[in-house]
Amino acid sequence: MTIWYEDDEFWSTSIGWMLRERIDQAPAEVDGIVKLTGIAPPAAALDLGCGIGRHSLELARRGFTVTGVDRTREFLEEARSTARAEGLPIDFVEDDMRHFRRPGHFQLAVNLLTSFGYFEDPEDECLVIQNLY
Q: Residue 98's closest CA among 76, 74, 120?
């Protein structure tokens, strides 16, 4: 039996609509991130659990060097399509946030909306935090 957070159909049907509904919020959210962190382009930014790329796209529009990571192929395909249409050079990576690491590569790392706190094992949550760090 597939664990719910590893079920692509769940993400596509239950969460995809919510992400698309919130696309217009991304500019204000990125404004807040930039203001809070003081990090400016062309810094390397990681959007861990990027979904359809709402924040990855907005960060790239502002000149950040962006890597977006998600495990849901359908979301990444949508994000890549939007990035191509806008001519944005974003590295979208299909991987599990518990495993993706590029130590010392990013000056900014974000994990937004519903992308944290759903693993059953607290050790998995610790892996995510360690990878963000």
A: 120
